[in-house]
Amino acid sequence: MRVSGLDGQAEATQPDTAPEGSGGPEGGSGTPTARRAVVSGALGSALEWFDFSVYGALSATVFPQLFFPDLAPGTALLASFATFGVGLVARPLGGLVFGMLGDRLGRRNVLMFTLLLMGVASVLIGLLPTYATAGMVAPASLVVLRFLQGFALGGEHTGSQLMVMEHSPSRRRGIAGALMSVGSPISQVLATLTLTGLAAWLTEDQFTSWGWRIPFLMSVALIAIGYYIRHRVEETPVFLANEGKSEQPARGLLKQHRKTVLLLVLAWAAPGALYYITVTFAISYLTGQLGFDKSSTFGLMVVANSISIGASLLGGWSSDRIGRKRVLFTGLAVLLAFLVPFFLILDTGNWWMAALTITGALCGVQFMTGCQGAFYAEALPTPVRYTGSALGLTGGNMLFAAPAPLLATWLMQISENGTLLITAYGLLTILISAVAIRLLPDRTGRRLEA
What we know:
Blueprint: E1 2-3, E2 10-11, H1 32-59, H2 63-67, H3 73-105, H4 107-126, H5 131-134, H6 137-165, H7 173-181, H8 183-201, H9 204-209, H10 214-217, H11 219-231, H12 237-242, H13 249-256, H14 258-267, H15 269-289, H16 294-322, H17 324-339, H18 342-346, H19 351-378, H20 382-401, H21 404-414, H22 418-439
Helix pairs in contact: 1-4, 1-6, 1-7, 1-8, 1-11, 3-4, 3-6, 3-20, 3-21, 4-6, 4-11, 6-7, 6-20, 7-16, 7-19, 8-16, 13-20, 14-20, 14-22, 15-16, 15-19, 15-20, 15-21, 15-22, 16-17, 16-19, 17-19, 17-22, 21-22
């Protein structure tokens, strides 16, 4: 056994590639169980991210006037983005709680609960009274329900990744994770298509009055479909083989792997922050600053997210062949190329140019996302993998993604050079991610550590 330079962790001595279909803790490549895990991960992730995506779009458009009408427009937008950020702040707590439960009780059991919690919170958001009806109770309830959404997603996202990773063979772990990760852009497309259709078919008053509630109330059907899918997936062999070996995963994680978790948090600085600037803040910027109507803006996001699905699959596939870190650095380079001229291109007011630059930036993020699940899973051993991976990803989102739309809005309000300051912040996150990824090990193709 050889020791890496990170946390004194011992790297596995297994060969870098395992024979396909070799069985063991990682399962075969073509078994019904493995295929079912990938399908359930992708569909389950898409179902849960749908509600999260709808909230992000509405927080940039109608929520300021519905829940914060007494505030000035700029302040109301800040308050709305703050409620959006609450969901991201709650994710590390959900990741910690559900991660510890998942490392002790199993991935499958936890994922059944997170699905139900997310669905119930989303339906209740769809039933919420607005400020005009309930006063301060309305925004306060919105914050609570948004917190529950984020809390559930904190355990759901990493748990889904691990279900796929731990059922997949070593040589196909990247593409398997990518098939699961496309749930996020697919959900963005579905959410945006839903909102685009509603905005086109309903009048402005109808959409603001009750139309925005429809996507959240659709969660009733999504819960039923998702529960059926999850119920058919078996617990992962690698968890069953290590069940009971770690009774206190959090203590072992902090004692032996804290540096790894910190680097995983920092590694996701750029994709986390720039994703929400590109998707959530850009909607507000296009509609509020540049005069784009909601329908054309939502349509632009459909184009960008649809194309980025291919980038995610390409990222996962490529990582199995050239390594996870090379894919991550390539994604950072793409982000850098589109970030520098981002606002200059948007300010032209040309729909096609705006679609091009937003699509390019999203493809950079999704190219990295395609191999993120495998990269994070391979960084930690089985007894602490759920807890550590969840803290790494959700911690990065809390520190960098959650404040991104709020920070961008604030910078626009305090300075005439707001877009320049936002660009500078994006460049800082790219630098942080690059350093962290450089310091993490690349264990592409190795068996998951026991």
